[in-house]
Amino acid sequence: MAGCKKIGILTSGGDAPGMNAAVRAAALIGRAGGAEIFGIERGYRGMLDDAMEPLSPGDVQGILRDGGTILGSARCKEFHDRPVRDRARANLARRGIDGLVVIGGNGSLTGALHLADPEELGDQPLKVIGVPASIDNDLALTKLSIGVDTAMNTIVEACDKIADTATAHDRTFIIEVMGRDCGYLAMTSAICAGADLALFPEAGRSETDIVEQIVKTVAAVRQRPVTDKKRARRVIIIKAEGVSVPVERLKTLVDLRLRERFPDSDPGGIETRVTVLGHVVRGGRPSAMDRLLGSRLANVAVRTLLTGGSHKMVAWMPPSIPDGVGVRSGVDPYCWLVDLRAVLAETQNLIAGKSSLARWRVGAFDEIEDALLQ
């Protein structure tokens, strides 16, 4: 298969720390391989607006340490329509761009698959390779996506600080973190921060069950002998934003049940507080791991386009791969090339809690929860 001569790079969907590392690596490796490299501004929106400019080494040399993405990002819902995609393909063809590196999450990679659909392409040459980038870590068939490590470190640092005031006042804190419909960030940060409870959508618990789960945890902590004055009777609960109960409503319901459960507690009752970390989780300079991950995934992505590969996502140490879905990249021992359509199908199972990985995560946290309540 003929390799690509002109390669476009775009970042799409939610920004993630480490995207710039991927842009930098893709631009430098692509130019070293003899291809012309174009940066596409604002994702698919920029493609429709013909906002594409050549990327030189000087444009990307200093961006490794920067958060966000120098190319910008935007949502583009109309990209679901065939005429809109036809317009985007016409803009690419006018520039002679025959290869795309798409850096983003589920929606971004879905757009890439449709854009390079052979039935829509006709005779126009266009190859696409996806690079997983999402702080939610909600893409299947890759162990990590770009941005996850930095986001997790941001959450843990915030939880450590909140734990100080929680301990000083014997308070219960409910800390909401990002993640959309995936509870990965809540799960992993709860372990790393030593939280007393993690709430995540994959558990499928009802509102009543979630409230009782929190009250049970608070009761278990307050009934323990105080042997560690640094922990005292504080409780740290990490809630994924995908849990259906709004955090303020959750606090109201928990406060009511705590007053019922502990009618003879201190005059002020058991104090609960809420902190929503929100978009602070997305920001900041990327960790060393995200800089490395972005660079290595993009390296494999561009080299695959240069050798004529297409319709793949570069995966980092996949937890499991069905037969016939992926192969080792041959460029990096930790990177695999996985069929893009299979990635998107398995991602739906992961988000719905139906995949083996999702079931394992829920089972592991059930065991952790039982252990903490002892």
Describe the protein in words.
The chain has helices at residues 19-32, 43-48, 57-60, 82-95, 106-115, 118-121, 148-169, 184-193, 207-222, 247-261, 288-306, 340-351, 356-372, and strands at residues 6-11, 36-40, 52-54, 99-104, 127-132, 172-177, 197-199, 235-240, 272-276, 312-316, 326-328, 335-339. The protein has 374 residues and is an alpha/beta fold. It folds into two domains: 6-147 and 286-352, Rossmann fold; 169-281, Phosphofructokinase domain (Rossmann fold), CATH 3.40.50.460. Helix 9 links the parallel strand 7 (197-199) and strand 8. The protein is elongated, with a radius of gyration of 23 Å.
Question: What's the structural blueprint in terms of helices and strands?
Answer:
Layout: E1 6-11, H1 19-32, E2 36-40, H2 43-48, E3 52-54, H3 57-60, H4 82-95, E4 99-104, H5 106-115, H6 118-121, E5 127-132, H7 148-169, E6 172-177, H8 184-193, E7 197-199, H9 207-222, E8 235-240, H10 247-261, E9 272-276, H11 288-306, E10 312-316, E11 326-328, E12 335-339, H12 340-351, H13 356-372
Parallel strand pairs: 1-2, 1-4, 4-5, 5-10, 6-8, 6-9, 7-8
Antiparallel strand pairs: 2-3, 10-12, 11-12
